[in-house]
Amino acid sequence: MSGKDVHASVTDLTRWRLTSVNGRRRWRYVTMDESNERPQNMLEKYSLGLDYSESVKVLPRALTAEESAVNGMNFFSLLQCEDGHWPNDYSGPLFLVPGFVIVHYITKTELPEAFRVELIRYLRTVQRKEGGWGLHIEDGATVFGTALNYVSMRLLGVSADDGDLKKALKFLHSHGGAAAIPQWGKFWLCVLNCYRWEGMHTLFPELWLLPSWIPAHPSTLWIHCRYVYLGMSYLYGLKYCAPEDDLIRDLRKELFVEDFDDIKWPHQKDNIAKVDLYTPHSPLYTSLFKFLDIYELSHMGGLRERALEACYDHIRQDDIMTNYISVGPISKMINMLIRWLKEGPESEAFKLHRERVYDYLWIGKDGVNLQGTNGTQVWDTSFYVMAMLELGNPDDPTLQKVLERAYSYLDSSQMVESSPKCVQYYRQENKGGWPLTTRDQGLVVSDTTAEALKAMLLMEDAGPHIEARISRERYRDAVDMLLSMVNPNGGFSSYETLRGGKLLEMLNPSEVFGDIMVDYTYTECTSSVMQALKHFVDFDAGYRTEEIWRVLGKGLSYIKGRQLPDGSFEGSWGVCFTYGTWFALEAFACLGQNFEENTASSEVKKACSYLVSKQKEDGGWGEKFASCRERKYIESEKSLVVNTSWVLLGLMAVR
After folding, report:
1. How is residue 305 annotated by DSSP?
2. Which of 454, 431, 435 is nearest to 587 (CA)?
3. Please, which residues bridge with residue 256 across strands?
4. Do the beta carbons of residue 374 and residue 325 sit within 8 Å?
5. DSSP H helical segments within 510-576, as ranges?
6. How far is CA 357 from the centre of its chain?
7. How big, in percent rounded to 5, are the helix, strand and coil portions of the chain?
8. What is the H or E stretch that residue 626 is in?
9. What angle do CA 554, 499, 480 make, to 5 degrees?
10. Could you tell me what percent of the chain has a pLDDT over 70?
11. How far apart are CA 348 and CA 312, in angstroms?
């Protein structure tokens, strides 16, 4: 993957094909020898930005909102996969591809040429005008994004003389070079042997040996954070570095503003570029890690060995419980490297990891990227179903078939049994829930379970043509799972119940991410669960009804408490105040608060007034991504369809 300069800029996009089985999506590139390959379908053309006009019929121009919705429904029915779900591009972060490329390079895992070319094209496409790459595609260039994506391009075969890379290096050096990269970047460069472990604060793998009742035990961390730091801690404990080679030696010369061997590595622990620093170390973190860094200099060998064994046990179990997918691509790639290192390239574990890599890859019009998870299949399918059912039960047999396939997909995606050893390995019991992605991955999420439950219940009412239906017991299993996730404050977190507090956030070591340590409670998750439970009460009034109403009451109190003085609700999983306020209004609406019946509370009126005040002159709404970072409403220059839709959904819910 390394010794080749790259000139091909793009593959023949008409040769890409997508298959999906039980939500497991796989793109592959058709070679010239595969003459019997089927023609490219509508979904593939649409995803790749190709002309799909021959795959659709021209629909009459809509003159009413209902006609427009019907046209939209007919169009999106053509984008459904053969297994019943709707696939989407879930990309944006620019710190995912580097781990993928680095692990492939170290393990000498062959990357098909078409994927290599399209990865390079993607990185060129998302490069910022100032020369570097940011934390994500909406971000300005940073040292973190620039150093790691520069490394990715070089490992993929791009020459250091390439014009784009020269611009990137100019930006990087102007901000102090890779010595000033934040913690996650230091980690990847250490693994690649382009940084020294002495330049990082300890990752203290012994933490995994401590009793689970201590406040900062790994079991209290948000699951994404927990599994990233699990693998990081293992490799840190080994002080693993890739074997040195010519390209690694070249990168050492290119990435830094001073000679690699002259860098005072212990002085780099807190060297973070100003352009990157979002979450400075707290005084508590600084004090604690002064002590832990001293311990690292003379740690006990036997204790370290036990800690690494404990970490490896959790890594192995994560692979088993998620079918080698893990919770996200960073922990997945770290696990893959560790299993290769521990068990070898011919081991069954490494081969299974290698196969699952492609679950994370997606090709779009900008090239190949790595997804934030192995998809959002259940989440997206649930919303597609509910959008279609807003028009009532369609009589069109084609649309009925679409709903049948979607029902079948959601049916097959529910977790019918809890994964073994959930509690032992700090996981939420998952029987009855739905994962965000696939049943193979199996990590259930509160709001995904809720939205899938809503969609299934709505199809029970509006889809009499659906023959094979799930049992009432499985609906009850879903409700049991949701009720097990309610937190003492009445709100709902994402993957697990709230386990940690503010103390953990004060120990956030990442420097570039905020609020990553704890699975907090969220307006959106709470609203989704409330809506689903209300639907269920109407469907099955005899099951845990009193408890459900108590949860609904506490949930509404929680959401009321989240309202800001201006009437808005801050969103955490979308942009940002329009998104959060929409979900909040849906929660009020599901408990009967609306204007038509004169039952709208003061909170509802205030939230609606807030949304109306943000309407632009053209009638729409537009909110920038920067709202999430600044935590205040930042209006976009023009109205956006998505923000406008969210606002209208919220207002219509309580009309």
Report:
1. H
2. 454
3. none
4. yes
5. 523-539, 545-562
6. 15
7. 50, 5, 45
8. helix 626-630
9. 55
10. 98
11. 16
At residue 522, the 3 state secondary structure works out as strand
Give which of 272, 290, 190 is closest to 235, Cα–Cα.
190
Question: CA–CA distance from 64 to each of 188, 601, 617 (Å)?
Answer: 54, 32, 21
Query: Smallest Cα–Cα separation from 571: which of 641, 631, 496?
Result: 631
Six token digits for residue 493: 């977190």
Q: Is the pLDDT of residue 156 over 60?
A: yes
Contact call for residues 104 and 344 (beta carbons, < 8 A): no
What is the C-alpha to C-alpha distance for residues 231 and 559, in angstroms, rounded to an integer? 36
Contact present, 372 and 329 (Cβ < 8 Å): yes
Query: Considering only CA atoms, which of 292, 295, 339, 333 is closest in space to residue 317?
Result: 339
Contact 370, 97 (CB under 8 A): yes
Of 604, 608, 584, the C-alpha closest to 491 is 584
Q: How far apart are CA 611 and CA 603, in angstroms?
A: 12
- The letter for the amino acid at 423 is V
Give, rounded to a whole angstrom, the gap between the first and last alpha carbons of the chain. 58
Select from 571, 573, 572, 483 the least CA-distant residue to 585: 571
Contact 464, 451 (CB under 8 A): no
Query: pLDDT tens digits for 582-628?
Result: 999 999 999 999 999 999 999 999 999 999 999 999 999 999 999 99
By CB atoms closer than 10 A (0-12, 13-18, 19+), residue 296 is buried
**Pairing status of strand 361-364 against strand 367-370:** antiparallel
Task: Supply the pTM of this predicted model.
Answer: 0.95
Q: Active-site residues: which are they? A: 447
What letter does residue 420 receive in the DSSP assignment?
A: T
Task: Give residues with Cβ within 8 angstroms of 609, minimum separation 6.
Answer: 567
Residue 520: helix, strand or coil by DSSP? coil
pLDDT (mean) for 248-254: 98
Q: What is the pLDDT of residues 255-300, one digit of tens each?
A: 999 999 999 999 999 999 999 999 999 999 999 999 999 999 999 9
